[in-house]
Amino acid sequence: MTLLRGVDGDMSWSDWSMLSVGDVEHRSGARAPDDAGDEFLGRYAGYSDGRGLTGTIARAGEGWLQGAGSWRRTAVRLELHTAVPAIEDEPWCEAVETPYVSRTGSIALYGPDDLKFELDGFGTYRVRVLLRREDEWNRWCLRFWRTSGPVEPPRWLARSASAIVLVPADWRKVLPGRVWWLYQMVRMEAAGTDAPISLERAAVRYVSFPWPRHRELEEGWLEADLWTVPEPLPTGHADLDRKNRHEWREATGRTAKKKNKWRRLSERLGVPLPANLRESFTLLVAAGLLHADAEGYRVAATPPTAGDILGLSPKKRAKYAKRRHHVGHLSLAGDVHALAAWSPGHAITGTAAEFAERLLISIEDFHSVLPHVREEEFTTMRTGPDDPITLTARSRRKDREDRRYRRGDDADEHDPFDDEDAELLQALDAQQAWHEWPADDATLPPIPDWAEHEDSDPEGGWEDRLAEAKEFFERQDSEEQWKTPRREYPEAGAEEFGSADPPKAGLFRCDGRVIVWRGGEPQTLGRTVRRDLTPKGSFLRDGPDIALETPYGIVLAAFDKNDFEDWWQARLVQQDGTVCGLGGGIRTLQRSCDGRNMAISTQDDEVRLVDLADGSTQTMPGLENDRRPEAIGIFAGQVYVNRSSATKRPYPQTWRWRPGQAPEQLDVLLQWVDPVTGTALAARKDGRLLIAADGTTRRLPIDPSARLAPGGRLLYTMRRDPHALTFFDVHDLGRNPRIVRLPPDCDPRYFGGPDMVWEDTRHLLIPSTDLSGAPRPSYRLDVQTGRLERLPVYGRQDDIPLFVQPVF
Questions:
Q1: 18 Cβ contact partners less than 8 Å away, ≥ 6 residues apart
Q2: Which of 78, 231, 227 lies closest to 686 in space, CA to CA?
Q3: pTM of the predicted model, to two decimals?
């Protein structure tokens, strides 16, 4: 038994499901003495212009290892062995052995958890990469053992299919992007099965794909009109409405051009122009990529070429056929490059039969890949007498433009129909003459000034920002800025905060103190971990994002935005000053109206309800297979959660959960629930939808970015240049928006600053920061009268206060 230790990890839906392992800093800080590295084995060797040779199974180098992705869920096991492990009789589909050089002796599996694993110190290892495919999963096993002496090039041990992939890449240049990806989803679902694939099953895979824009799709997107661009909704600002109208007309023009290309493709294939993505599957069937039957779709075993089906010109046919052939050989070209890169002198000589044996392919496939190896320019080839072939690795490809010129790529590469319908396209361009913006001397309607405030200078705001930016970047270039020692903060005194009414529930300062006002005097309720800044004083790295008042103290929490680690443990600063932890890895945090309960969504895909009175915790059931469930509100003892899963519920849905009972699914997807009135906010393409606690609804045709104020009476938006807040009254359906013009020095959430805080349903605290992250004066706004009150700067340089949200 050679196994020394092992660890299991789950990458879940990582980008492209590509296996990615690399060196990380060892806990001892040790690393190889020679850190220059080998350019032929560096992380980006074999990459140029975002394109690279991935290899058919896996490839490795100095401090990195990548496994070919296949859009599946990925589970990985890392093992360290004391000697060469025995080859087991397990059903591994793919297997390859490759050298690996670690300069730190510690590696990590990159993914949601960044799983770390320690090797036997820095040096040269050999790793056996094993892959087994099971239903939705790619199961990898990486077995490392230390080696000495000359490095042996990689050797392939098992393949389940041909190393040359048959991909109809020529159709990628012909079909519309979303239609092509729907075809790819059918191919993925059909892998390993002979059963037909329904359109709904392919759509579920498409929505479950690990891309943000796919997760934003709502149910019914397959039936959405492809050729109608929704008109922009009013914002309450004439200049923004005018700008949005111009952008809408531009989008309408682009859609007209796109519709013309779809029409020409449909005519060539002999099918009607699709009105939505569901009908677009007729294009795939007519192209011969899919075969339709009563139960669904089957993937064509040998897809026809685009040139033959569409009757393209000979030049286009040759070009697209070349592309299909090239893409099918690209991964195998990566294997050939790895052989040369790991050989002594980065060159290897052998016969075609010897190379084919090491690569575990046929001699015919090896000869077939050689032209593509030469074309990719990462590996050069020289043929000698008696069939010896010398392969030499190169670290970088030649200049991309020279390569394109030599190949003779066309400028209209994405249009398979050459210059057909040129007159129609010129007519469409002529119709879009209104794309141009108004002349410089055109005046935009002024924004009404509904605010009463002091020391505002709207005319000089832009010049002030330019001066700020110049000062910020000059300070950024200064070496001394990096050497500024950490400033120690004295205890707060009354003279430090001025005479204006203090924040109702207090504030959190960068030095870690929670300040509250009792009897009109500031007091330190408690002290916790300080909020750090970068050495240049900008962009918060750590510390709380939100502070909430409760009857039991102040809750401070930071949201784990990177999904990699717990940046900051949520804490409760109790009334007696003691601090207790509430856990980390928080994605969202919602508070009940009375402040007793907290609904916490975590990176572990759990939703917990914490009772601050007794510290008890209850976990929402039924979330085992869910992706990123998020609590959006608490009202009347019920928690509202948006949840979805990769298989059963790909589209986000809102569920209502009362502890002790089974969760209940709602009919509409909500965004936020007001803890005071229970009014729920939902987004629609035609505006915002408000649902009262009694079930009555109101649709407001206003800016879809509008947020709901506590109390459920107002919706509001924030704009910049010039800065203003816009309020829409729910009862008049937002017909008469009220605009508060903010001073030029008031810009909340600028450069990662804190958000606005409602003191009650009438007053709004507006913090502000500048380009360097330093605080500016804050303001208190009375939303009924529009009066702005300037507050003191609660702190000193580089001390950005975080206002506590009171209990209503």
A1: 54, 66, 67, 68, 69
A2: 231
A3: 0.70
